[in-house]
Amino acid sequence: MPELSFSVEKAEAVKFSAAPQIAFTLRIENAARDELVQTVALRCQIMIEPVRRSYNARAQEKLLELFGEPERWAQTVRSMLWTHVHAIVPPFKGETSIELSVACTFDFNVAATKYFAALDDGDVPLDFLFSGTIFYRNGEGALQVAQIPWEKEARFRLPVGVWREMMEAYYPNSAWVCVRRDVFDRLRRYKARQGLATWEQTIEALLARAEERAEQDEQNFCDENSEDENGGAVH
Known about the structure:
Distance between the termini: 94 Å
Order of helices and strands: EEEHHHEEEHEEEHHH
Largest sheet: 6 strands, antiparallel
Strand content: 25-35%
């Protein structure tokens, strides 16, 4: 019966594809070197392990939405699911390598995207958890079926630069934000009323108004405190 082990050797951004992808090179070895493995219907769950790396102040600020204040990270930082991948492994003896292609999204409603985008350098600690079905032939040539044990896994540190290179290739100097349809309709009406040419100009105009209002509120608050300290306004 086959006894398979797995290791991830490298990762590369796929630059010419219909959607952003990262290709992981997966090495599979069978302890029974002379045994023919007919095929493997492989399933893989990829987890992000945030606790296995450190974060500078800039990353901590960007990760506030995911994990909260850094003082609480001991309770809030946990493993998170990135994705599931399926692959069919062709016949082999001893060992083989296959490519696991992982589709990536730039949707900032997805926790994994928020995490990747928050990192400027270093690695993303990943844990590949394997399951699936092995088809092989016994000594008499009869086809046999076995399950991959749930404890089979492989760790890999994905360079942040690979993810950034991939996203820059597909979305140069851009980011995607998904909003509800009613919110989009309000933005569209505002854009038309103000005669703005692009969505960037629309958002910049709204941000400028919000910042101006925040500054005015802050100034009003300071003025009110100053009046209280001086016993009221002078007329």
